[in-house]
Specification:
The chain has 190 residues and is of the alpha/beta class. It has helices spanning 9-21, 36-42, 53-60, 138-141, 153-165, and strands spanning 24-29, 47-50, 70-73, 75-77, 100-102, 110-115, 144-147, 173-175. The strands form three sheets. Strands 1-6-3 form a three-stranded antiparallel beta sheet, with no helix packed on it.
């Protein structure tokens, strides 16, 4: 297939579609700052879980499953660009499937973990999508729980109660500061 890719284009499309249909992903927003847009898109009155790559690795360290979890930053591309080359469509760590997205989603600044179903080398067999169980130590995973700046007091209280029931330390639970102290911007005119 590598020697004559054009001859195998239709077959490659089928294999690609099948791999994508069996791909399981977990997505995270990566930034040192909160995003009003991300709150609006994904959790208007909910929570954001704060974690890090180190915490994720620690939470998965005793994961004895027979699958491999890949993790990396999403690469955003302009799929309509006539300048796009095959090497552009591969991430720095060599991934293509599951790690490339349209540039229109670049505001998501996404880090993704994904698992693909094992496939025999050279196999063209269509696999059926199937769930994969991944054991995670939640206490190691969660570095913080941030409550949406748009959440009302009853939702905040409910979230704090659920976190207590789940054994999450109260010091790890906070409310977003996104909308606080905006009036301080006017102090520059004093």
């Amino acid at each position: 297939m590598q020697q004559r890719p054009r001859e195998h284009k239709s077959q490659m499309r089928g294999i690609y579609r099948n791999i994508v249909s069996c791909l399981m992903v977990n997505c995270w927003y990566r930034s040192a700052h909160e995003s009003e847009g991300m709150w609006g898109l994904y959790s208007k009155e909910g929570i954001a879980i704060k974690t890090s790559v180190g915490a994720i690795k620690a939470a998965l360290v005793e994961n004895q499953q027979d699958h491999v979890i890949h993790m990396g930053a999403i690469k955003y591309l302009d799929f309509t660009s006539t300048d796009l080359t095959p090497p552009d469509c591969v991430t720095q760590d060599g991934h293509l499937i599951g790690m490339i997205k349209r540039v229109d989603y670049a505001h998501e600044n996404e880090v993704r973990m994904h698992i693909t179903r094992p496939r025999e080398l050279g196999s063209n067999e269509d696999l059926k999508p199937a769930p994969t169980h991944v054991s995670v130590d939640v206490a190691k995973l969660i570095e913080g729980v941030v409550i949406s700046p748009f959440a009302g007091s009853s939702i905040r209280q409910s979230i704090q109660t659920v976190c207590r029931w789940g054994g999450i330390e109260p010091s790890k639970v906070s409310t977003s500061n996104l909308l606080k102290n905006c009036e301080n911007l006017l102090d520059v005119y004093n």
